[in-house]
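User: My collaborator sent over this chain with a note saying "see what the structure looks like." That's all I know about it. Can you take a look?
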Amino acid sequence: MRRYRLLALAALALSIAAVAAGCGGGGSTTTTEAAGVTVAPTPGQTPASIFNDPARFVLTEEDVPTGYVVDAENTRAVTNADAARGRDNAYLRNLESMGRISGYASGWRPGSADVQGPLQVESSASTFETVGGASDAFALGVKEVGNKFTKVEMKESIGDEARMYSTMIKGANGDYTLYTVAWRYDRVLSTLSVTSLKDTVTPGDAMVFAQKQQERIKAAASEKIGK
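Assistant: Without extra context I'll predict from the sequence alone. Here is the result:
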């Protein structure tokens, strides 16, 4: 499964790698709020602490088919330092300039050969200080992906802005298809990818999981302080 994970991460440059990438050494963004500035919450606002816990914005056991188990190798927090590991200091500074707070990834796979469904389901979310920072990061991600992967027409909407991509993977035991949905909702950038044998997974399958993840995001982001 690790091979699929590496390919998935490449396809998910949209919301992970490209968010941190220097993009030619630039990549600084302008937002209406400065990252790191603490603003006292007022009644009716979403508590900032919610966005400090990106694990709330990814798929859980309740969202995957019965018989799926956690892919522990691919389930973890992804801090800015984690995302920048192996890169130069400019990479980390660029993450911080966009106001990325943190991220989380969860991986799921069938627990046995009898379980029906994709061979791998991966869910990730990154949170940002501002909507502007998240939107800028999404735009940079789209630019980074470019035409490296096949853009898939989306039959239904999700979040405030979204893209879907696909790629084929050559394997020793056959060919595989990877579909990735990447989207922004409020201050959260998310990705959902499914990998399975060629012709056994569809864009619709990916969207089913993506919409479940979006429901989690919307539920958490709708929590307000006071009345």
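A starting point for your reply to your collaborator: The chain has one domain: 2-24+45-221.
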